[in-house]
Write a structure and sequence with these properties.
Helix content is 34%, strand content 23%. It is α+β, with helices and mostly antiparallel strands. It has a single domain, classed as 2-Layer Sandwich (TATA-Binding Protein). β3 and β4 (92-98) form a beta hairpin.
Length: 153
């Protein structure tokens, strides 16, 4: 009897967690005029535009045409696991990444800031700490994007 109650409680917790993780797109995504939204004070966000050193990451450099760079970046993103491309505009991309275990959503945004720069913001929707996941993802995107440039030359 106690095991059944424990199983029911655990199932309820998991269902609530998953439901909370898949909520709608937060209001602080999308272009904020000509820039990306700032990171909150929590350590679960990194941005190439962050004022805090602990949250700052390098922007993605590119050479040549912005449309070609955007196509390469979309190819990189589509090759990654658990990604959903939410929105693509002339100078903006919004992608969602879901964690493997509980489906927590991170919003990753790219703003093409010519000449030759793509600003990045990667932020968790829930929680306080992300254990470095957003920074690791941005590092991986940097490496994959650089490799795609070499492959196309």
């Amino acid at each position: 009897m106690a095991t059944t109650q424990w199983t029911c409680k655990l199932t309820l917790i998991v269902v609530l967690a998953l439901g909370g993780c898949s909520g709608g797109i937060p209001a602080n995504t999308g272009q904020n005029g000509s820039t990306l939204a700032p990171c909150p004070a929590s350590p679960n966000c990194v941005s190439s535009l962050a004022s805090a050193e602990s949250q700052r990451v390098a922007a993605l450099p590119y050479s040549g045409d912005a449309a070609q760079a955007q196509s390469r970046l979309l190819g990189v993103l589509k090759g990654m696991e658990r990604v959903h491309i939410v929105r693509v505009e002339e100078a903006y991309i919004h992608a969602e990444f879901r964690s493997a275990l509980l489906g927590f959503v991170d919003d990753v945004e790219f703003l093409f800031d010519p000449p030759g720069t793509i600003q990045i913001r990667s932020a968790s929707r829930l929680g306080y700490s992300d254990f470095g996941v957003n920074r690791e993802r941005v590092t991986a995107i940097h490496a994959l994007f650089a490799a795609s440039a070499k492959a196309n030359s």
